[in-house]
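Quick one: structure for this chain?
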Amino acid sequence: MKKYSLLEISNYIDGTLHGSDKLVTSFSIDSRTIKDGDVFFGIKGNNYDGHDFIKDSLNKASCIITSKDIKDLNLNGKPYIKVNDTLQALQKTSEYVRNKSSAKFIAITGSNGKTTVKEMLAHVLSDYKITFTKGNLNNHIGVPLTLLSINQDEDFVIVEIGSNNPGEIEPLAKIVNPDVAAVTNIGYAHIEGFKTLKNTAKEKYSIFKHIKKNGFAVINNDYKYKINIKRTNKIYFGYSENIYKKICKVIKNIFYKTFFLTIFKKRKNIFNIKYKSINEILNLNLNGDHNFLNASCAISISISLGVGFEKIKEKVENFEAVSSRLKLFKLGKNIDLIDDCYNANPSSFKAAISFLSTCDQKKLVLMGDMVELGNDTKVFHTEIGKYAKNMGINKFLSVGECSKYASDVFGVDGHHFEDAESLKSYLNNNIEPSTCILIKGSRSSKLEEYVEFLKARRY
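Got it. Here's what it folds into:
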């Protein structure tokens, strides 16, 4: 593991080192999980201030990075670095660590599917030395923490970057300085912050501004927003489009490589992929047609990194679903449960309902609220109820303040529940044999409770 000089770090982040220089290897922002030798950052959040926990961290911390004066604290001789802003210091330190690495860096964003693509790519690259974003640590704090966790012996580092508002992705992309950057798609996630899909696209495509020279941009073929993407090597992935559009993309990207990876659905979970001379059929171990696009994004990234297609195909075909993303459970009496409660927005909800509609059993949706939809919250929830009805869903259950709009418009077989107990009572007494149940909502809805309830129920 690489060792870093505190003096070098202090100089890089425009801080002042108090005490002796020493070599450090790891970093933390949480006094509850800090390990021996970690450098501790006192980060101020909306509901907490890490400076309040400096004393708790002293037993294990090798150094404190603080924006407050702590010279009166008994530091037991440990050094500290004084800075103006500890969040900026965290980000600058992560940039310092990233710049020490010789690995290839991959940055992934998008409205939907970025975590699935990240996990699939990590699986494809699992025979190499890699570090990749854990969980959903994809914001202005999570991205630096991912970079600070690298060991400096990696072949590849995969960084997921998320955004709720304009202006969040580009500074993180600048820190990551990726060899390959990918945008999975543009959709209605966090539309409250972005206001329009064009604004969403502008924010997501800003990830391409800091690709390294001779790097690759991986772009969904459904590129319909008049936003300039820097000239660089590009792979467009997705369903087929006419030759005129392809020629336009090649001409606009003159002097750089422009490739197209095209997919065609064959049947459920099986699709055909064409790229240059490659013409192969892949069998996904994932549910939902939208995962054809997720897979083609991960494949495009892998190709740009020089991974052989035979290895890519093998890894993609044996990749299994990420937890709470269209995860299928067999419960007995031909009752299936689709756990898709990790998160939700209008685009991903319609994709999940489309998958549910292909099931042979009776079809039931349990919906929790979708958040960050702004002034159109009612409209978006109502659309889901209408869409479910049009797709042949038999029953529609909802829990939460806004999901009621969906169950109301669904009609006679739509039922809204004010609390968990009444919903569980209904589920306990009204689930018929040969039913497929989809559970989906935003993280704040905490729908895992109902997934576990149904899994534990006797059938």
